[in-house]
Write a structure and sequence with these properties.
- The complex is a heterotrimer of chains A (499), B (100) and C (496).
- Chain A is an alpha/beta fold and 499 residues long.
- Chain A contains 15 helices and eleven strands.
- Chain A has one domain: Amidase signature (AS) domain (Amidase signature (AS) enzymes, Alpha-Beta Complex).
- In chain A, helix 4 links the parallel strand 2 and strand 3.
- The longest helix of chain A has 22 residues.
- A two-stranded antiparallel ribbon of chain B has the order 1-2.
- In chain B, strand 1 and strand 2 form a beta hairpin.
- By secondary structure, chain C is α+β, with helices and mostly antiparallel strands.
- In chain C, a hairpin with a 4-residue loop joins strand 13 and strand 14.
- Classes of the chains: A alpha/beta (499), B mainly alpha (100), C alpha+beta (496).
- The interface between A and B is large, with 76 and 57 residues.
- The structure holds magnesium ion (MG) and zinc ion.
- The site of magnesium ion has 2 residues of chain C, from loops.
- Chain C: Its EC number is 6.3.5.-.
- Chain C: This is Aspartyl/glutamyl-tRNA(Asn/Gln) amidotransferase subunit B.
- Chain C: One of its GO terms (molecular function) is ATP binding.
Amino acid sequence: MMSNLTELTVAAIRKGVADGDFTAVEVAEAFNGNVAAADALNAFIVATPEKAIAAAEAVDAKRAKGESLGKMGGVPIGMKDLFATDGVQTTAASHMLEGFVPQYESTVSQKLWDAGAGMLGKLNLDQFAMGSSNETSYFGNVISPWRRNDANGVPGNAALAPGGSSGGSSSAIAARLCPAATGTDTGGSIRQPAAFTGITGIKPTYGRCSRWGVVAFASSLDQAGPMARDVTDCAIMLEAMAGFDPKDSTSLDMPVPAWEAGLNPDMKGKKVGIPREYRMDGMDDEIAKSWDDGIAWLKDAGAQVVDISLPHTKYALPAYYIIAPAEASSNLARYDGVRYGLRDLPEGAGLQDMYAATRADGFGAEVKRRIMIGTYVLSAGFYDAYYNQAQRVRALIARDFEQAFEQCDVILAPTCPSAAFALGDKTSDPLSMYLNDVFAVPASLAGLPAMSVPAGLNSEGLPLGLQIIGRAFDEQGVLNAGLAIEQRAGFTAKPEKWW
Amino acid sequence: MSVDKATVAKIASLARIRMTDAEVEAMVPELNQILGWVEQLGEVDCAGIEPMTAVIPNTLRLRDDVVDADPLTGGGVREKVLANAPAAEHGFFGVPKVIE
Amino acid sequence: MSNYTIQGATGEWEVVIGLEVHAQVTSNAKLFSGAATAFGAEPNTQVSLVDAAMPGMLPVPNRECIRQAVRTGMAIDAQINKWSRFDRKNYFYADLPQGYQISQLYHPLVGEGHLDISLDDKNPDAVKRIGVERIHVEQDAGKLMHDQHPTMSYVDLNRSGVALMEIVSKPDMRSPAEAGAYVRKLRAILRYVGSCDGNMEEGSMRADVNVSVRKPGGELGTRTETKNVNSVRFVMQVIEYEANRQVDVIENGGAVNQETRLFDPDTGTTRTMRSKEDAHDYRYFPDPDLLPLELDDAFLDACRASLPELPDAKRLRYENELGMTAYNAGQLTMDVDVYKRFEDILAATAIKLDKPEKAVATQVANWVLSVAPGVKNAVPDVDEANDTTGANAGILALLASDTVSGGQAKEIYEIVLKTGREPEEIAETEGLKQNSDTGAIEAVVDEVLANNAEKVAEYRGGKDKLFGFFVGQTMKAMKGQGNPAVVNEILKAKLG
Ligand SMILES: [Mg+2]
Ligand SMILES: [Zn+2]
């Protein structure tokens, strides 16, 4: 029993602790052990075993007193290092924030601790959440626990990307270093890594989870969400993370639905839209096939499948690559070496020289590239042609979805155009890296809830994900369709331990 | 619209990112590739379409005029504010001397 | 309205002036955080994590700041925009923690309005209308201190995030005097409305002064902007200096640079601001952390209902309803503290005398504007606590009822200021009351005339100047308590 604790889901851990089958401390110790033994994955920037134990002890003490243990009672999780954690280094995977110890706790992480979760550590990510492969972290690449099989089905040893930016989260969950983790999704950063690693992740409606205390990348897009092994765990954890926060003026002032209790895989009477524009020229056969599988599973669950059109799909990615860098160029202006973080003060440098030196030294190449793009598109004379035009196109993309949702309840599409690629494959060509988020970005631009669930393995033994996009505020519809797929996909594969 | 070395250098200076000549040079084609690609947005007919202002229909909430109502957004936390400062003296942040 | 020109070697030059006034909004907490705004706190003690732009911090606007800016807009008859937005103005400076200032460029809260200025105290109805382009709401920056350390500047973020209204005039002013009058009038309105305390010494109000010169009626010249000028006198000095400097530059074959300048109060001159030397590209764009600000009718109605009577309306009412001179009405309504003192004392005096306010308004106005300040200035170490509405009304009631003379009133006021004693009691115990009893005065006058028969003869012979002698003798005999009006009247009658 004890040796299997790290194989348990959030729901099972919570139940086991509540029922007294094992203690929260035993669970924390088991995961701490896995974390300590997985340096090769580089999923964590800092491990905080003592935090996990302390939270577990508190849960065990509550249980002894007969108190309620909370939605996440006794569940240790990983915290993406984009969430400020009081007294624990928070870096956004950047040299800029190396050694930065916040004196405050992000709203989302606080809610999780209040719900009885404990922290195993701070998870690696793409620097400032900019990337799709976890190769931009100052603290090194995260490695996927998955290995690609050769033609004979023999696992190779090429290091694969865990996806990004929440690649530490996806890698750690797939490798059983934690049962669940927080992610953030700006243009696919929860869904794409989930798909790459055979796990489940949901980006809720923009505004569901407070952005307060989350290092900002692109404010109008950033949304936190849970990553876990299955749909039920995502529902449980999202309930703990979501909720109105008066400190975030874009936070939705609505009650948090009982998503876990509302889970229902019966799709009778539901219409599933299949966006024809997502079936792009040269689409990977195996991706196309998994999409067809998804359609069949949802039909089997009772859904009616309808063809829909999202005509502006092809413009989503270019619009995103104006809006997100523009916002980022401004959001990242605060990293200037004055109040916290890195300061690079060359001999005899003045204030402005200090800024330029600090930012040159502190930011990685991809961060600089995006700051440069963002600065350019906002600079004098270009604002309207680039930024405003992108925001107009964004309005059209949102309108496409609105019109589509007059004909269907949820939309089914692949999460990514391919399975996980090898580290280094796309680093020399930023554009090819950006194209990896082509299916994920439209829902981000429209602020809609969207999740990725595992659909199966491809011929190389790598996981593929299916994406479900729902109406604003309809996380329940998304989770339910995800559950219908999950039950039929029967995805039980896990990476063979090599680390 | 394509950028040249001088433009890239100017943008780097606006963004306060020190760049060597070689770095500027290397960034020219990179930016041009990305900018050339995003410019396909120009094809989209946006007549009569207002730029998006709110992703999800929502109105701006306003806060009551109360001091320190929430310690997380209130003052009186100088130690927390200065805790991570590269240079802090006598309750101030220190920066290289500025001539106005 | 003023014929101000610069006389250059090539002829006359006209000066064109626009002002951007930054007024600190009166609020308890900052524009986007809950930190306090009080002046003079220890460095960085009124700074929240939000104001210090810690990673992940977010702005939430303070309703009171919006309300005050709307009320200010209403007070200058401006267009109030029910839909506005906050934009980010991006630039790097040590007093700007976020690397951008949250301001409003594209859709300000308040649009066009105007206010009327007068340059003639005697004729406040002769006005010039100065257009206001807009009022937007924005964050103040922190403060840099340069003289505390040999190689470092110190940063204090206490002001960082305090709400400002930027009130942008049209380039409608043509002289230092007009600019001075504009700032004073604007300050009066802000103080009436209660949206800014107008305290220029503490930096609650400061002006960016835009100046250019041109040949009368010619094309607009290149302007300079002199930043953060913090008194009316300095604003006028900047204009005077800049106008002459620019004329010199042009007449010597040069061109005026469009630039940001700094005023040095010690020398009365301006100079290029080094930290702003490079032309800025502020990359304004809508703040993605904030949704559009939408105001409903109920909010606007409440703002309008809460507006007080404003300076111009009050001045006209004083003239029309209280029968006051234009000069007095203008002087009394120029500042909140002055009119409030006047209205309080007027009301209390009228009640004491059981008379309509109009009957004593002029006497109270003269008291408040000239008599009382004159006495106060002459008394060292006035205890302000003694200068109550009740005490002033008490003295004015004694004066208006002829119980005391003007001179006695001043003496009583002096004692009041020093001791806080009751005016009626002072008049009684100090013998500071005048005698208006005609019988008694007649008796004294008869005696004085009898004792000075020669002089009476001289007077009657044409030496009119002696009248004052008889008044003096009578008052002396009455120990100064005779009512001068009655004394005069009786003397005139008796001397024929
Ligand atoms: Mg200005
Ligand atoms: Zn301003």
